Amino acid sequence: MRRITTTLCATALLALGGGAATGCSGGEAQSAAPSQSAARAALKGSPPKLAAVHEQANDLLEGGPEAFQARLRELRGHPVVVNKWASWCGPCRLEFPIFQRQAIKRGREIAFLGVNSNDSDRGATQLLEELPLSFPSYRDPDQEIAAVFKGTAAFPTTAFYDSKGKLAYVRQGPYRDQADLAADIERYAR
């Protein structure tokens, strides 16, 4: 277990550009992602549709595919980035700070949503306490929401919707740095 922890911590340091992962003890890679208060301050004054997303920061939402698709319809006019994750997924944990930084940087123009698939509520809640997000996640125990964006094959998976609500791109697997995620946001979240 110690070797896995060390590997996770080393991977976190590399993935986050060095020096961004701290406190790598107890089996979890901890992040120096922006705090919830910093996120709220940065996102203050967002357009109403995006402000409604920010008001649900770090929440686990119910409703299944119907609620998720209704939210996508509500967000038309804004691109949407959807990140499928699970608390047991090491690469998901490592990319949380990357998504948090991009969500704060771009959250006044682009909606970010999470989809917590194949996970326990306890595990998901614990991860969100450790690495809080400035956006909500939908509970998806059976990957029914992930199926909406053809994201059932891998953990993590990221889907990009354009401002018209059309699915533009699905990436299977993790983002290892800010530059890769930022490039895909620029390319697909229009």
Care to describe what's here?
This protein has eight helices and eight strands; from the N terminus they run αββααβαβαβαβαββα. The protein has 190 residues and is an alpha/beta fold. The protein folds into two domains: 1-32, no CATH class; 34-188, Glutaredoxin (3-Layer(aba) Sandwich). Helix 5 (90-106) links the parallel strand 4 and strand 5.
What does this entry show, briefly?
The chain has helices at about 1-15, 35-45, 50-55, 65-75, 90-105, 120-130, 145-150, 180-190, and strands at about 20, 30, 60, 80-85, 110-115, 135-140, 155-160, 165-170. With about 190 residues, the protein is an alpha/beta fold.
User: Which runs of at least 5 residues are low in confidence (pLDDT < 50)?
Assistant: 1-31
Alpha plus pi helix count: 8
User: Tally of extended strands?
Assistant: 8
H/E topology pattern? HEEHHEHEHEHEHEEH
**Largest sheet descriptor:** 6 strands, mixed
**Integer count of domains:** 2
The level-1 CATH class of the largest domain: Alpha Beta
According to CATH, the fold-level topology of the largest domain is Glutaredoxin
Tell me the strand percentage band: 15-25%
- Measured between the Cα atoms of the first and last residue, the distance is 43 Å
The CATH architecture designation of the largest domain is 3-Layer(aba) Sandwich
Classify the secondary structure makeup into a structural class: alpha/beta
Morphology: globular
The share of residues in helices is 40-55%
Q: What is the subunit organization of this protein?
A: single chain
CATH superfamily of the largest domain: Glutaredoxin
Average pLDDT score? 85
Strands of the biggest beta sheet: in what spatial order?
Answer: 3-6-5-4-7-8
